[in-house]
Amino acid sequence: MKKIFIVLIAFFAFQTQAFAQVKKTEKNKKAKITDSVKWRAQHYIVNRDSAYADPRIGLKKLQGGNRRFVEGKSIKPRQNYETIKKLENGQAPFAVIVGCSDSRVPNEMIFDQGLGDLFIIRTAGQVSAAASYGSMEFAVLKLKTKLIVVLGHTECGAVAAAVERPENVPGHIVTLINDIKHAAAKSSHLHGDPVNNAVRQNVIEQVNSLRDLDPILHKKYVDGEILIVGAVYDIHTGKVEFLEETLLNLPKPKAK
Description:
This protein is an alpha/beta fold. It has a single domain (36-246), classed as 3-Layer(aba) Sandwich (Beta-carbonic Anhydrase, Chain A). It is built from eleven helices and five strands; from the N terminus they run H-H-H-H-H-E-H-E-H-E-H-H-H-H-E-E. The protein has a five-stranded mixed sheet with strand order 2-1-3-4-5, with helices on both faces. Helix 6 (107-110) links the parallel strand 1 and strand 2 (118-122). Reversible hydration of carbon dioxide. Pfam families: Pro_CA (PF00484). Its cofactor is Zn(2+). InterPro entries: Carbonic_anhydrase (IPR001765), Carbonic_anhydrase_CS (IPR015892), Carbonic_anhydrase_sf (IPR036874).
């Protein structure tokens, strides 16, 4: 009986060791594949450190991540315990996302990013006020984040309210309408869907507002230290369109 027990122990020990070896081999094989030039090109991989250092590269990283999401190639990077431990003592997000609170627009998912990558500020219609401005300034000054993206989305309820202008709006919801109604009026002459036209115009105006925001963002922007651009997420396709109107005549990068 004792011999049988010893044999069983030896057998299970061997099985455990063999299983561990197989897992290690699979992990090494996967790492080798994901490090290949071909795989990185197929998945639009952009270096994380470069994206943090240069907002133009950060923009490409967001665009690549959204392409993965749309094409069903999401890699869900930096979403593990190892990353949690790395971030214990601080964060260095490569982009600030000023977006809408809509539950259909989960920023890390649609850009296929992970822990510590995005500094996210969300309100309905991405309407900003003092607390939002302070959060952006904190990210730029303290965290050294150099890219700010204003992210609207199609079929936005807050924008729809500004277009429709209902009477007797309850509570503080009216503050959202008041902030967006100028964009709704400015885009009202355009052909197409009035809400989605207003969504685009609202993003453009919010981008311009942040670029002019003193005392911090305006100077950082005109000096070429940061970029502030706008985009719209399509809730029907999952695609993020970076608006050409906000990509033109960007300031030259600050000389190092």
